[in-house]
Design goal:
Blueprint (H helix, E strand, L loop, with lengths): L4 H17 L3 E3 L10 E5 L6 H5 L7 E6 L7 H6 L4 E3 L6 H12 L3 E4 L18 H9 L2 E9 L8 E5 L9 H18 L2
């Protein structure tokens, strides 16, 4: 995996920006392992979600993101941010391979399995199974999280909550349903 030099440089800036502008509340940070690789999996509410998530650790988080970000002028920035590009129009086996490689190299990856920002009134969109597949192939932990609230400048209105890590059973369909259930139930609790 290409070294994310820009990520390491820009992370402290994003951290300060996020904490001043959005004052995010983080719950359950003790559930994040200090070492080793794992998969962060949560709902997707806004383009700012990955920006704020950079605050949770000094380690690089490799986000799976739409491959449009690695084309044109954006290519220079996002290729140096350590993202793992995903073609959302096909079953992208390259994204899966790159995610597995990152995990086997001891990295952290983050996936929003809804595949897009949820702009519907539904609590959550159906999950794609990539996170569960990667966890199954690498025997790495999944750490579910939820994002609750709205981004409002200079107000404490957005909360990121991280839940207990767990390992998948190997049944992709059941594991994916279980993951979706964990996140859905915890989002509904707040409504």
């Amino acid at each position: 995996m290409k070294e994310a030099k820009l990520y390491r440089f820009i992370r402290p800036i994003l951290n300060v920006f996020s904490k001043i502008c959005f004052r995010p509340k983080f719950i359950g940070l003790e559930n994040l392992p200090k070492n080793g690789s794992f998969i962060l999996v949560g709902n997707h509410t806004n383009i700012l979600d990955p920006v704020v998530l950079t605050c949770i650790t000094k380690r690089t988080i490799h986000f799976l993101a739409k491959d449009d970000l690695t084309k044109g002028l954006k290519k220079v920035i996002f290729n140096n941010m350590g993202i793992i590009p995903v073609n959302r129009h096909i079953h992208d086996s390259n994204a899966l391979k790159n995610g597995v490689k990152a995990l086997n190299d001891g990295e952290i990856i983050c996936i929003f399995p809804e595949g897009t920002i949820n702009r519907t009134k539904d609590v959550i969109l159906p999950f794609k199974s990539g996170a569960v597949r990667m966890a199954s192939q690498t025997n790495k932990l999944i750490i579910p999280f939820t994002i609750k609230g709205k981004y409002k400048l200079f107000r404490k209105n957005i909360t990121f909550e991280f839940y207990k890590p767990y390992k998948v059973s190997g049944d992709v369909k059941k594991d994916n349903e279980y993951l979706m259930e964990i996140i859905s139930i915890n989002l509904i609790k707040e409504k």
